[in-house]
Design goal:
heterotetramer, A: about 650 residues, alpha/beta, Pyruvate-ferredoxin Oxidoreductase, domain 3, Rossmann fold, 8-stranded mixed β-sheet, 7-stranded mixed β-sheet, B: about 325 residues, two-stranded antiparallel sheet, 11 helices, 10 strands, about 30% helix, binds thiamine diphosphate, binds iron/sulfur cluster, binds magnesium ion
Chain lengths: ~650, ~325, ~650, ~325
């Protein structure tokens, strides 16, 4: 009997409501003190293509998904057997083979599925979905409309599941009702009834007690929330005082902006849907220059249109914007709704010439919050664009986290010219001239002290910024190379000084960002093997490490987070003292590996790479690491892993 | 009893930066610069409350010569940038400007979409029918079959009709000025700034260096038998481009059609206001959506450490 | 007496015709068998800002400029003393101090210049430019229009120069006349007269024989041409069969397209001026897919708009386009008319995701020709976009080269489906399925053999392409991930196979491109110091090596040329066997250094970098290398060099 | 004696690919797809000589369902890509298509500039007033104040008027069709393809999933008292959008103005041809510039190893 450890999956055509089903289930578990990790896979399609949602539940913290399913709910046949029968080249082979022995499959008895002989190790629970819906509708006098209410199938699926695990029905009922408020409450009631009828049907028709999985509320309850990554990022933007967000719809970034849009009224946040991403980035740059905290969100194809604007922001030392750049499967349009860590190299050198910017890649939801919040501080402290680099997986996973410590919330706005004081002389720009005693145009040192210079050559590269409209704070600004007063120059001395001013900020950033936000070495100091990775694989690797620890294997994990400026020295030290290195990335070329080689000279030859558009499962990482301990493959040979059978 | 003109706080000099100007001698841009400065002075706007945005091109250098907040942005991106700025701080008068290549070529997408957005700001296009700063290629306003001296062949694309485009795009103020009549131009610019909404001023500009077709002499009609100017003022003809009842869709359509027809008049070319309708601006709509924006620029609203407890509660 | 070795410079306001003067001078020397290396510096401005043109002449091959000037011709005062008197922050200090002892300065006596006491080591030749012009005009009855003909000053400057070096006037007269044909021949005559009058004036008023520089025709004449880089690139495009070129004006790339545009009539080349660079790249991709050789040309800011299209071309395996991407001073708008090698990192990862493309950086005009020609072959052989990476310096230098060997001209069009044969079965895509014996949908292996599949999974990653319009060659194509028939798929297996197909091309390219086009080690095998560099610094480094050889120092030079795929193994071997490494680049961050570290693990700490928008002079490289031999700076400390005094 | 219809080489099936279609049930795109296939069949075009280009969106999937050369390109870039293809091979009939977001939003710059370029190809815009594939945000044709079910707030930008925009941009054929009348639409598409020059067909398209404002019922006028369709055919009213004497500038302007005025008619909405003028195309102009292009597609001209000796000679 497996208690409070369940790997559940619902599959069906895109648009059939599996999301609702899975998310209500997740919420019902989370509210009852269980930990949840849920993730969805779907096509870039509105209706009809196969999609599925996994919900993993446990008493313990969960940070990844497992391949084996305990309960599969199938709304259609394809979910079970795949599409090899109707696609020239099959897309998948269904999930039947993924069900763990002892597990079960709940399916719509209408779909024409015959349990195969070779899976006698699992149980089959056919449920007459439409009959259940019809019964629920009959109660409200709509018994003849069952086909119009097919969407209720997902509620039926949910009810059936709960019966099988003997989970208290009331919790779910509450969650459902809380989602249908006001004039929609009638529909809520209908959903609850359908779920309950399914619940009863399964309880009455099958021997649930004999089914080996059991879920029940966890009495020890902490203040937790159940959230998706994009929601956490949106929260961070709200808390950090972002006043201006632009966007152009694109998977998987849109959700963040739509979330903010929904709350713009009460949160006084301006969200502008632009005509494209070029407009998005430039509007955000314009707004940043005016002194508001501004942001935009996009993914690869949109970012490809923003690169010009990144250079613009960096060159004019705009205090922002913050760009949340959600990676998805590439290249080009690629796999719009799938996972990849494929844009690191692109965002590190996103435009012509050398200029400073910050790139940080959070590894989990908590880091998403922290990094996005920090990003607004850095944008203003260092006056440059900041890119936060989540991915489809982080955006879409739906997981319990401890309630955010909203105390981690220090706002830093950097140097600001207020009009009451003048720019300190040392930051005036004349220092360039004083250094070698050369006084052009017969000017005396100190001349023009009482004058504000937006691009004064300060020691640390950051000059006080002025908010347009401020008396005496007038300035010019140009994307051409410029003087301290922001006028175009092509002079050799000024050019050199300005390049140093701008690029010098990278050192300042390295010194300012807390080390533990730059990278983190997880696990034992005397590990026999060190995994090197970044971003959303963090949770999966941590989970895998637990499994390896149970094997008695010592594994550590170097998580790289601040990608620009890169903490090269520290990372090199850690790498050089590691016994054995394995690079884990969700892309073809090992992009972090390349960055590490460039920054530290250390080349990690042993690589576990995946680029099929799906995140690693815990099992895949565990298997890959076990292989290493078993001496396969030889150290320093490349092992590319994928889902391919 | 005579009405005294109110005393102005600022003189023309207050709008002039002391930077050396590097346009070619005789460039029409000088006239546009003067037009802007005259307009600011006529409106007595505080230079600290004005921000001038430009694209890239000869025209793009204009902000450097105006004493006001000045932003010399990217080629073709001046409208989104200025829009972002304006939305962030409605306390500042925003003027956007750029070349005809900048605005109608590479920036055409923003030109169109800014019309339908109707943000309250003035946009001036230095229309010289060439790409000045890149040495005289045809710009989008050069008509099919025309060839300036720096072009190896005649233009084979048709020229754009900026006025008709602006009408279709939804600009609520549409005018045309002439660079070498800075005073008349200043009058138009004042109206454009005062207009609540997206205001386009297409400014016919001479480029003595590359455009040997549309020279001062050409505009003056020096080559015509009667030496009559190739320009005339709409104001002088009783033309009325203003929509008087903006709730009357019919009047709007009629005035739009009138402007479109006018815009195809080629010689002489009408200058002045082609079309104007004071419709709700983007900001008007925003204020309905975001109550805090009423009476306050976005930049002045305190949004730090927002209360997100209700959101967190919903995530339980 | 210095014979046939001259470093000449003319300076004056932008638009005053210094180009004409310098280029006629260069041509007159080149036609007479001398070698010429000329380069221009000018502002992003149409008229008025300071610009200057250097012409270096010799009997020997020339590949760089020197800082010291033998003869300076000044059309204005600023050329001599700079702009410190009228700029808040000076742009430059004039060229007077750059004149070598024994040299001379020819200047317009009208500009109010007083020879300074501290330059008694040079000679001053004031010439009444306007007077000379007036005299020439008087001869044609226009004596009163001298001010309207100020442009003739540059011809006067030329005539004065020739007198000083005692160069035969006739050669120059011929060159001038050849440039004013037809109805403009009158103006040509006028120019010749003005030059001749200046020639006579100088000969009559100064003791030219005492002036120590002498130029005279070189009898040993080889078939040479005098050309700019962009012309050579245009020639390569013409010879390679480029049929379709798109562009949007931008320095320093426009010249190439305008050159092609001028010849489109007789060369049957379609040149389209687009509304922006997004349009340019996409039109070129569309044309490439139709089977013509297509190309576009741009620089950094334009390329920033093309990145989306690069991914498009790579994902759809378009046989092109070829992009000549002329680097200029960045970031953002930066220094539009100045030099920088600042875009290497950007073009190496120019869009989201992992995809294959080729990047090659030619080092001189001959390599420009070869690489651009090859680029069209590679684009079609490997079906991907190819980026050729010259820079402002290569585009604009005006130099003698041996007449191109137009025999280097092999056209390779790669695999083409002609309709007469079918795609070989092995390349059909079904192999994926056969490999593991799995037959989806009950299909038998071999089924559908007589069918063309555009994206068949071939062994080397390249599938035969078909030209739309070809009977039976119909195909689909999408920027989404796709099947062999070009339809969208999100299946794990196909995705993985397609990624491998595309990325596998990089290996094929490494094997196909001749080694000597990938990199070259110049100089002695037992060198004590190895310079590592790329692109247009090549000539300067080679010239500096000659100087060092005269010192008895053994210096070699590793020139990296193929940047993607990078010849990592060979480069690593060379670097690891070098005694001492010095990286030389014209950018802030040492971009090639970073690529080398990434690809080979070798970090070159000793760096000579320059990022002021001007190319290295021979002197700068010589000085930097001499310093190294003198033990300064310590090996492995960073030495950043710039023009800053 | 009866005239026999010429025997067609191809049946409708010859234009249908066997790919499973994944649009939502009832999507208007099905009608547009049928319209295209019917048009190709009516014209009896060889599928091997047709290339269909699309942008990204639900509409972008169309080429996969047509049996012809099919290019599913980038969001907003279908016009330049198709233009490049058409210029490279004029032997192939090029049809470009895409969503309204694709064409009038992110692609607005190319929409405008393709008009003035007047390359000979047909461009179909699937106008459903939403961004379908990204889940129902407002597209540029949704008017101010409107709100579909997936939008959190009303649209605050004005909707674009594609017909008026196309007139101003210089399209030489401008029409509107309706997705759920595929036969009528096919007739328009045939005309658009036959037209020499840039032809825009704005197709009103239902999106049952996200657009709950402009549904089939709405177009049918099911909610109106007299249940009269909200569409009417220009052909039925004697409207004549064709310029009969293209050398007469006045007629051109008058017909343009007429189309603009028509385009502002809201209910009922006119469908059919708004404007047409057979003016010289880009290709016509090119043939003058490049003699070799006369009668031969670019791709068929042998340009390898060109003779550049004259150029080299000039560089001596
Ligand atoms: C993305 C990009 N492409 C090209 C350029 C090069 N460029 C600079 S100015 C200019 C055209 C200027 O023409 P216009 O906008 O008409 O302004 P004008 O110089 O005539 O005032 C171009 C193409 C650039 N700066 N950025
Ligand atoms: C550069 C870029 N930005 C955003 C997207 C995401 N995207 C895909 S389809 C689409 C909009 C589709 O709307 P529309 O063009 O109206 O087509 P429809 O789906 O309605 O047919 C968007 C924004 C993208 N693919 N590329
Ligand atoms: S090139 Fe033309 S537009 Fe530019 S500054 Fe000179 S005259 Fe003015
Ligand atoms: S979302 Fe709308 S446009 Fe897209 S397929 Fe569905 S119904 Fe059609
Ligand atoms: Mg212009
Ligand atoms: Mg749409």
């Amino acid at each position: 009997m497996q208690k409070n450890r369940l790997s559940w999956m619902i599959g069906g055509p895109q648009g059939s409501g599996i999301n609702a089903s899975a998310e209500v289930f997740a919420k019902a578990c989370s509210r009852a003190g269980l930990r949840v990790y849920a993730n969805i896979e779907y096509h870039s399609n509105i209706m009809g293509k196969h999609s599925f949602y996994r919900v993993r539940v446990s008493d313990e913290d969960l940070r990844s998904y497992q391949e084996k399913i305990d309960i599969l709910v199938a709304l259609d046949l394809e979910t079970l057997v795949g599409d090899a029968d109707h696609r020239r080249w099959p897309t998948h082979y269904g999930h039947l083979h993924e069900i763990d022995r002892g597990g079960g499959v709940i399916y719509d008895s209408e779909i024409g599925f015959e349990p195969p002989a070779d899976r006698s190790d699992i149980r089959f629970f056919p449920v007459p979905f439409i009959e259940v819906i019809r019964t629920a509708l009959e109660e409200v006098g709509k018994g003849d409309q069952a086909r119009r209410y097919e969407i209720l199938k997902n509620t039926v699926a949910l009810g059936a599941t709960l019966a099988l695990c003997e989970y208290p029905f009331d919790i779910v009922a509450d969650v459902i009702l809380s989602q249908f408020k006001g004039k929609r409450s009638e529909i809520g009631q209908l959903n609850v009834r359908a779920a309950k009828l399914a619940f009863d049907y399964v309880r009455d028709h099958f021997d649930c007690a004999a089914f080996p999985y059991r879920l029940q509320p966890n009495p020890e309850r902490k203040p937790r929330i159940l959230a998706k990554g994009y929601e956490i990022i949106a929260l961070a933007k709200l808390r950090a005082g972002c006043a201006f967000q632009t966007y152009y719809p694109i998977s998987p970034a849109t959700d963040e902006s739509v979330f903010l849009e929904r709350h713009q009224r009460e949160q006084s946040l301006l969200v502008v849907q632009c005509e494209d991403e070029i407009s998005s980035i430039n509007m955000a740059v314009g707004a940043a220059h005016m002194g508001v905290r501004s942001a935009t969100a996009t993914s690869g194809p949109g970012f490809a249109l923003m690169v010009e604007g990144i250079g613009f922001a960096a060159m004019t030392e705009a205090p922002g914007p913050v760009i949340t750049m959600y990676q998805r499967g590439g290249p080009s349009t690629g796999l719009p709704t799938r996972q990849e860590q494929g844009d690191l190299r692109f965002v590190l050198h996103p435009a012509q010439g050398d200029f400073p910017h910050v790139v940080i890649a959070p590894g989990d939801l908590r880091e998403c919050y922290q990094d996005v919040f920090s990003a607004f501080n850095w944008a203003e402290q260092f006056q440059l664009p900041v890119i936060v680099l989540p991915d489809k997986k982080l955006a879409a996973i739906y997981t319990t986290i401890d309630r955010l410590e909203l105390t981690y919330d220090k706002v830093e706005r950097g140097k600001i010219f207020t009009g009451s004081e003048w720019t300190p002389y040392a930051a005036k720009g004349n220092d360039l001239v004083e250094q070698d005693g050369h006084l052009p145009g017969g000017k005396k040192p100190g001349e023009g002290v009482n004058e504000y210079l937006r691009y004064a050559l300060s020691d640390d590269g950051v000059s006080p910024r002025s908010r347009p409209g401020t008396p005496g704070g007038r300035f010019w600004s140009t994307t051409d190379e410029h003087d301290p007063d922001g006028h175009i120059t092509e002079g050799v001395e000024m050019r050199t000084a300005m390049m140093r001013k701008r690029m010098g900020k990278l050192d300042l950033i390295s010194r300012t960002v807390p080390k533990d936000q730059q990278y983190e070495l997880h696990g034992p100091a005397d590990a026999d093997l060190t995994v090197v990775a970044w971003g959303s694989t963090k949770g999966t690797i941590l989970d895998a490490m637990l499994a390896l620890a149970e094997d008695g294997k010592k594994v550590s994990f170097l998580q790289c987070r601040l990608m620009r400026p890169f903490p090269a020295e520290d990372v090199e030290r850690i790498l050089r003292s590691a016994k054995r290195l394995v690079l884990v990335e969700e892309n073809y070329s090992g992009q972090l590996g390349a960055v590490i080689a460039e920054e530290t000279g250390v080349r990690i030859e042993d690589r576990v790479l995946k680029y099929d558009g799906r995140p690693f499962s815990e099992d895949e990482i565990v298997a890959a690491l076990r292989e290493r301990f078993a001496g396969r493959p030889e150290p320093h040979t490349e092992a590319v892993m994928t889902h391919v059978r | 009893m005579s009405v005294e003109a109110p005393v102005k706080r600022f003189t023309l000099k207050d709008y002039k930066s002391d930077l050396h100007n590097d346009w070619c001698p005789g460039c029409g841009d000088f006239g546009i610069l003067t037009g802007i400065q005259l307009a600011l002075q006529q409106m007595d706007l505080d230079p600290d409350k004005v921000a001038v945005f430009s694209g890239i091109g000869c025209s793009g250098k204009t902000p450097h010569y105006v004493k006001a907040y000045g932003f010399h942005t990217l080629h073709g991106r001046v409208l989104p940038t200025a829009t972002g700025a304006r939305l962030a701080n409605s306390g500042v008068t925003v003027i956007a400007l750029g070349g005809d290549g900048d605005g109608y070529g590479i920036g055409a997408g923003y030109f169109v979409n800014s019309g339908r957005r109707n943000v309250d700001m003035a946009y001036l296009v230095h229309n010289n029918s060439v790409y000045g700063l890149t040495k005289g290629q045809a710009s989008p306003t050069l008509r099919k079959g025309k060839r300036t001296k720096s072009m190896p062949e005649e233009a084979i694309q048709d020229g754009i009709n900026p006025i008709a485009m602006a009408v279709a795009a939804g600009y609520t103020f549409i005018a045309r000025g002439y660079a070498l009549e800075p005073k008349h131009l200043a009058g138009i610019i004042v109206k454009a700034i005062e207009h609540k909404g997206a205001a386009l001023v297409d400014v016919l500009q001479t480029c003595p260096t590359y455009n040997d077709l549309y020279t001062k002499e050409w505009y003056d009609g020096a080559d015509l038998p009667d030496k009559r100017s190739r320009l005339y003022k709409l104001d002088d003809t009783g033309y009325d481009g203003v929509v008087h009842d903006v709730t009357d869709e019919k009047e709007i359509v009629a005035k739009k059609a009138q402007a479109v027809v006018k815009s195809y008049e080629r010689e002489p070319i009408p200058i002045g206001v082609y079309y104007q309708a004071e419709l709700p601006t983007y900001e008007d709509m925003l204020r309905q959506r975001i109550p805090a924006l009423d009476g306050k620029p976005l930049v002045d609203i305190d949004v730090f450490h927002r209360d997100v407890n209700a959101l967190l509660e919903a995530m339980r």
